[in-house]
């Protein structure tokens, strides 16, 4: 299920976006929308093929063909290029899927709709209420779009922007999304399996979870005996695999067995979250290695905007499309961890403000950073970060507004000084 979107009435707008503050930059990091399970599980009780992907185009690719000139076969300048279209069809043990049948891990029609609704929610606040973003979108200068190189995250970002934030009537027909991606090896929006130290810490917490949840796992085995022989962290399917399939089915309104009551699903959620993400909550080192490099990117854009550099002069809204493994270490960093798995399209928002109140004397003897504040929201819940609660670390009128100095101090503690060296097995 997706988190609900709260409304902003005029009273809230006046309090959280007062006249003495100018909104300068918004950065949104979100999990993709509702999808299918990432692999087949529980096929005897939950259908493996879901006819919920009617909006997805049939996968096509272009093959580059080289045609040599017979009169000069050795001259590469005479090579002619052409493209041909090929269609792919999945072959498996199931009957031929009908049009609209999803593949594993694919964004569903429901996921597309929820991402469009998230975009519309941002439009209602930042376009309609605050007049921060332009009503119509004509170029890419005000937006920075970034995604992991997965179809579900790329499509989620597309739906958010052109399905909700700037639907067709608010952008030109020629507008093309400019989405930035990274090679998997250099990806920073989720942890890398190449970081041996992080993988070792994750394995240690997994072993700790086996004993920590032993009685709970036995309880789940007893309750789910009619459909699953044994429930363990490493059973087949694993507890997390069960959680992935069941929550995806519930989110997409696929029928699940009666044994999966709300109480049972909540217990599975608690244990899966503890197994996968509790280490980030407990250990600064794990957070640094998992998400520190991405925090450095957020920091760089914030400082670029504060210093009014040419690279970000026109930038107003940055969106990063990621995964549960993106959101979890971030919400532990910002003290929003609630021991439950981040829901589909969960989103973290960073708002940068500049104060209009400072006197000319203050401006003369202060840096640009002294005049700026950061607010962090998780699923639109405004956070009051512990690192910003002491006097002088937040705006006098609002504890949710961290001074930029206090915010950067928190972020800097999570950024590796030498990522490659810190990732060495110890």
TrEMBL record:
InterPro entries: Acid_Pase_AS (IPR033379), His_Pase_clade-2 (IPR000560), His_PPase_superfam (IPR029033), Histidine_acid_phosphatase (IPR050645). PROSITE patterns: HIS_ACID_PHOSPHAT_1, HIS_ACID_PHOSPHAT_2. Keywords: Hydrolase. This is Histidine phosphatase superfamily. Belongs to the histidine acid phosphatase family. PANTHER family: 2-PHOSPHOXYLOSE PHOSPHATASE 1 (PTHR11567:SF110), ACID PHOSPHATASE-RELATED (PTHR11567). GO terms for molecular function: phosphatase activity. CDD domains: HP_HAP_like. SUPFAM superfamilies: Phosphoglycerate mutase-like.
